[in-house]
Amino acid sequence: MTEVNIIAVGKIKEQYLKDACAEYRKRLGAFCRINICEVSEYRIPDKPAGKEITLALENEGKQLLSLIKPRSYTFSLCIEGNQMNSENLALKLSEAALNGIPAINFIIGSSHGLSEGVKEQSDYKLSMSQMTFPHQLARVMLLEQIYRAYSIINNKKYHK
């Protein structure tokens, strides 16, 4: 069974989002081992300078990269990444399993994004949308899409 790791900066604060994450984690248990690893968000002033943001991203990036397991396939969620539909995500996950990759990582940065180092270390830069969503909602949306992808792989009705 493939291990899927969501490695994210910060914690989910809102209970309704925690509940949604818990529901999709429960559903995903039939298809994969799902883990959520959270790293601390680096504290910066309310109106940070560019250097302060860069320093924060680099510090967060070191924490994120330390959680990536060897021989895994890593998606970095970033605005400049490529968008894909659910079927193509299912294909990527299926190909990883067929190639014997034991773990798949999805990295979610802070509201300021990800460091260049994290993006360079990733195998695929993924953009969820050109639209802007609340940062904490990204984890719920990602879990739902992973569940949808595994439903497609396993010919379950959920996808429709």
Describe the secondary structure blueprint for this structure.
Blueprint: E1 3-9, H1 15-28, E2 33-39, H2 50-65, E3 73-82, H3 86-98, E4 103-108, H4 116-121, E5 124-126, H5 137-153
Parallel strand pairs: 1-2, 1-4, 3-4, 3-5
The CATH architecture would be: 3-Layer(aba) Sandwich
pLDDT averaged residue by residue: 95
Strand order of the largest sheet: 2-1-4-3-5
- Topology as H/E string? EHEHEHEHEH
Based on DSSP secondary structure assignment, what is the total number of beta strands?
5
Distance between the termini: 24 Å
Describe this structure in words.
With about 160 residues, this protein is α/β, with parallel strands linked by helices. The protein has one domain (about 5-160): Alpha/beta knot. The chain has five helices and five strands. The longest helix is centred in the last third of the chain and has 17 residues, at about 135-155. The chain is globular, with a radius of gyration of 15 Å. The protein starts with a strand and ends in a 7-residue tail after the last helix.
Supply the key terms.
21% strand; 5 strands; 5 helices; Alpha/beta knot; 160 residues; alpha/beta
